[in-house]
Write a structure and sequence with these properties.
This protein is α+β, with helices and mostly antiparallel strands and 169 residues long. It has a single domain, classed as Beta Polymerase, domain 2. It is built from 8 helices and 7 strands. The chain has helices at residues 5-13, 22-28, 46-58, 69-73, 75-85, 112-116, 135-145, 151-168, and strands spanning 18-21, 37-42, 61-63, 89-94, 101-105, 120-125, 128-132. The chain has a 5-stranded mixed beta sheet with strand order 1-2-5-4-3. The chain has a two-stranded antiparallel sheet with strand order 6-7. A hairpin with a 2-residue loop joins β6 and β7 (128-132). α7 (135-145) packs antiparallel against α8 (151-168).
C-alpha cells in the first residue's frame, strides 16, 4: 500500500471524491492478502471526473486506453462501454516503474453516494487519511462480483461479521 501513498495524497489534495474498495479495502479491514492494483469508486459527476483525471495526470498516471476526460464524463458512453465491452473498471497506469495501476470501478448497484454513507475514514500514512468502503458494503460488492479471486475476502468478511455478532450479545 505504500506504493499508493502518492496517489492518496494527490487525490486528497485535489479534493477528489473517492472511496477505497477492492483488495486494498480488504487489507485495510484486516484481511491477510496481496493485491496488484488500487481499486476506487469515484463520484462520477463531470467536475469530479475532471479533478480525478487532472490529479492522476499530475502524478504521472495516464489512462490505459485512450479516452478523454470528456468521453469518460459522458454517462451514455460509460453505459455503452459497459454493455458492449463489458467494462467493469477504467484503469490508470503509472508512467514510471513499478507501473502501478489505479482502477476506477464502475460496478452497477454501488453508486458513490450510496456506499459513501457508510464509509469509514482511516489514517493510512502519517498525515494521510482516506475513506474506505464499509465492511458490509465491501462484502456485498464482492458477492455481486462473484469472482473466484474474491472468495478468500468473502470468507474473511463473513467471519468478521460472525465475530462482531457474538461480541454484541
Amino acid at each position: 500500500m505504500i506504493l499508493y501513498e502518492a496517489v492518496f495524497r494527490a487525490l486528497n489534495k485535489g479534493k477528489v471524491k473517492y472511496l477505497i474498495v477492492g483488495g486494498v479495502a480488504s487489507i485495510l479491514h484486516g484481511a491477510d492478502r496481496f493485491t496488484f492494483d488500487l481499486d476506487i469508486v469515484s463520484d462520477l459527476t463531470p467536475s469530479n471526473i475532471r479533478k480525478l483525471f487532472r490529479t492522476l495526470d499530475k502524478i504521472g498516471y495516464y489512462p490505459r486506453v485512450p479516452v478523454t476526460v470528456e468521453d469518460f464524463s459522458d454517462p451514455q458512453k460509460r453505459k455503452e462501454w459497459k454493455a458492449k465491452k463489458n467494462m467493469k473498471a477504467f484503469s490508470f497506469v503509472a508512467a514510471h516503474p513499478p507501473f502501478d495501476i489505479v482502477d476506477i470501478v464502475l460496478e452497477d448497484g454501488f453508486p458513490f453516494e450510496k456506499i459513501s454513507r457508510n464509509a469509514t475514514r482511516m489514517v493510512l500514512f502519517q498525515n494521510v487519511s482516506a475513506r474506505v468502503i464499509s465492511r458490509d458494503d465491501l462484502l456485498k460488492m464482492k458477492l455481486k462480483a462473484g469472482r473466484d479471486k474474491d472468495q478468500a475476502d468473502i470468507a474473511f468478511l463473513k467471519e468478521v461479521k460472525k465475530i462482531e455478532r457474538r461480541g454484541a450479545k
